[in-house]
What we know:
Low-confidence stretches: none
Strand content: over 45%
Radius of gyration: 32 Å
Number of strands: 39
Structural class: mainly beta
Helix content: under 10%
Largest sheet: 26 strands, antiparallel, barrel
Amino acid sequence: MTxxxxxxxxNPAGDTAYGDNVRLTDTLKDGVIENLLLVLDDGGRLAxxxxxxxxxxxxxxxxxxxxxxxxxxxGCPKNPSWKITAVRVVHDPVKRRISYDDAKLTLFxxxxxxxxxxxxxxxxxxxxxxxxxxxxxxxxxNGFEIATPYYIQLAPNRDVTLTPHxxxxxxxxxxxxxxxxxxxxxxxxxxxxxxxxxxxPSIVDDPTxxxxxxxxxxxxxxxxxxxxxxxxxxxxxxxxxxxxxxxRYDISRDDRLRSTFNLERIDADSxxxxxxxxxxxxxxxxxxGNQPIALPAIDYRLRLDDPLLGGxxxxxxxxxxxxxxxxxxxxxxxxxxxxxLRQYTGLGQExxxxxxxxxxxxxxxxxxxxxxxxxxxxxGWEGRAIGALAADMRWPFVGEFxxxxxxxxxxxxxxxxxxxxNLDIPNEDARAVDLEDSNLFALNRFPGYDRWEDGSRVTYxxxxxxxxxRFSLRSVxxxxxxxxxxxxxxxxxxxLSDRHxxxxxxxxxxxxxxxxxxxxxxxxxxxxxxRRNEMDLTLGSSRTYVTAAYLRLNxxxxxxxxxxRDREEVRLGARLQLARYWSVFGSTVIDLTGRQEDPLSQAxxxxxxxxxxxxxxxxxxxxxxxxxxxxxxxxxxxxxGNTFLxxxxxxxxxx
Length: 655
């Protein structure tokens, strides 16, 4: 069959071939097309002087391929951002690949790279194996770096990506990632391995210091499996050979790596968790033997209806074993019950009554290895009983305000609990205590189970909410007063050590999607000095915006309590859309902590941590960016200096 003049042929896969002259066999599957344009189902285009198809395989002579738009929004023709030209192009639908002979990559109309032997998936379902776009990087420590990922599809549900990393100043490394989707869930395993010289993390930016060569690497894995509607398992691990490897090779800036698993059962009224976790600290001053290993950590909760007084009853059982290879070991178990009843009075007051009881048993060894005395507890077996009664009343007043609504809600809470044995119990999970708006009305202001805030107190505050067209405001402020004069176990500087607590609050403002501002604060009860000042601001749209964050913790606390150090920091970031596809972005982190905030700090009060500046071109089929980053923090062989990253991503080039 022969067809002439503006011919279109559509195959079952959804690809459409246009041509001036088409000759097909009697099966209408094979043939020859002159002046061919092949529009693939995923939007890609293949153009050629001539195209033939034999047994489903299409061969194009003097052809070009691009996934980019060839017309602008007004329908006028335009040159694609990038295209691949070749003497011959072969599309094999069985292999799901497009192969090229003597190919060249043209970027913005200029020939850029010769690509002999190029092939890539055709974008159909299932994808295929092949090279991914390389990453080019430069850093002061490793020199020039080029990483060329190679993707291997083992099956529709399994794949591997191998990425060689070649450096100009150090030996190469190899990165690998394996992923699999199963009938129960998915998991991923990956890592990075090399052989290089390393220095002690106590050495700061000294390339002449003694070092040793060794095998160095990083391993990570994570996964989640759902066995049935109630039972699930999630797990992850991150470990590295030494403290500076991740920063040296620009993999991560984290200072702690966690490995954990959690087997859970959840239904409408009960919850069971059997978990475990371990921590690898990458901080220079931390000793590995002091890092905790929790195995197991078991928590069970059951929620019941109260048939006598109404309300809800929650029963909890918990056990935890913490091991250290060169530190204090602790085992804990407790059982508790909590009753809550919420009712509304005739005046619209919301009244919540709470009763709580718990019995604990602890065992601990090697208490002298813990440096902070208040965290140790007594060696051997110790028991403890906890009880509390509480009443919490909220009284909302709602009315019209400036064309919208406002709500003013005074709130008062009374808590009574007998004197509790605390210092005989080791403190593992309740160290970093600080009064803030999120725990002001909590039954126990300590963050964990190992410490309980005893005594009787009254907590009072007010909430204010305003809702106008495109504008909203949420604010809360409050304070607590201890009814007895017994000394508190809460240390000075937490805002809770005296009878009157510090004043804490939070204010959140939103104007449409353009402005969002949050301010959290804690004011000293005696002189209204700011002890906590935290501000977050986002201003702009998704394309052009400014974000700023400021944090100051001025607790004025004993510096020997290592979990409550003071800190001051500012973070700034911005993105400016210069044109439809062009933008510039940047960010900075500055450590403002000095001896005034932390007597143990060696900083001068203005220490840049990291600067970043970049330019980005991003349209529908290509992402092209250049980023400069300067790191100022140096430890061991992770030296401070500049890093340059060139990123080129050709979108829609297969899958």
